[in-house]
From TrEMBL:
Catalytic activity: oxidized coenzyme F420-(gamma-L-Glu)(n) + a quinol + H(+) = reduced coenzyme F420-(gamma-L-Glu)(n) + a quinone
UniProt record similarity statement: Belongs to the F420H(2)-dependent quinone reductase family.
Protein name as annotated: Uncharacterized protein
Entry-linked SUPFAM superfamilies: FMN-binding split barrel
A GO MF label: coenzyme F420 binding
GO cellular component: plasma membrane
InterPro entries (UniProt xref): F420H2_quin_Rdtase (IPR004378), Split_barrel_FMN-bd (IPR012349)
A Pfam family it matches: F420H2_quin_red
Species assigned in the record: Longimycelium tulufanense
Length: 156
């Protein structure tokens, strides 16, 4: 594991990073759009992110969000941590309403279907996720009674 990745994991557990991170997401999305997913802010610390494109549950329009994926089985795990806020992120609501989506990963567009994980499968996935990004445990503590959603994005 690179020194930058270790630093990123450590910073990810700091409360101030959630505030800063929420402000950096739009910038990261612009960078990834312009480079077709080849460059991102998270990528600079050794975490290859994805841009998830969902269909808006009310608008029906494409909605993009950069996320930290974790390779798992035949797909990728993504979490609706919302930086530890008390409510679920909009993209997770969209994915529940319209599971067919697309990810942009290292310049490749991959059609996926999102599946909400529950029970033992979610617990196994959570362990895999927090091994890569321990800050998710901190977000989980901050989110109150809300259980953070974990999705498996499987190629279609």
């Amino acid at each position: 594991m690179s020194l930058l990745m270790k630093l990123g994991q450590r910073l990810g557990q700091q409360e101030w990073l959630a505030s800063v991170g929420r402000k950096l997401v739009p910038l990261d999305l612009v960078v990834q759009r312009r480079t077709r997913g080849r460059v991102s802010l998270l990528g600079l610390v050794g975490i290859p992110p994805v841009v998830l494109t969902t269909t808006g549950r009310r608008s029906g329009k494409p909605r993009e969000v950069p996320l930290l994926p974790v390779k798992f089985r035949n797909g990728y795990l993504v979490t609706g941590s919302n930086w530890g806020q008390a409510h679920h992120p909009a993209w997770s609501e969209n994915l529940l309403a319209h599971p067919d989506a697309e990810i942009l990963l290292r310049g490749r567009r991959i059609p996926v279907r999102g599946r909400l994980l529950e029970g033992a499968e979610r617990a196994e996935a959570w362990a895999a996720i927090t091994k890569v990004w321990p800050g998710y445990d901190t977000y989980d503590e901050r989110s109150g009674d809300r259980q953070i959603r974990v999705f498996l994005l499987e190629p279609r």
